[in-house]
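Sequence only, no structure available. Ideas?
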Amino acid sequence: MSLLVRYVNHTGEREYLFYNKKNSVLRVRSLETLLKNALLKAEIDKPYTLQDIRNASIAYMIHSCAKSNEIADYAGVSDRWIYRYDKIIDELNYAPCDYVHFRMI
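Reply:
I predicted one. Tokens follow.
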């Protein structure tokens, strides 16, 4: 069973997936702080933003041949908007090691 499925089984189905310690909806600022702290713990010096993660996930989906309408649904935009990533993807030359660059903290 995946980690996400176990989490939902534990917390129950709710309107939002994640909540803060006070059982309120996570705010963008809270997520930014969590990301910043995770980067510090992982000793990653380069600052990343939530937008960077969103853009990277879209780039990985395009590179992995996901359909543009599926990517647009994920990103919450129209599929005509996805063309903006086309030139970026052409410049990327991925190797298997590019997909695995995680550090467990």
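Residues 64 and 98 are 13 Å apart (CA to CA).
Hope that gets you unstuck.
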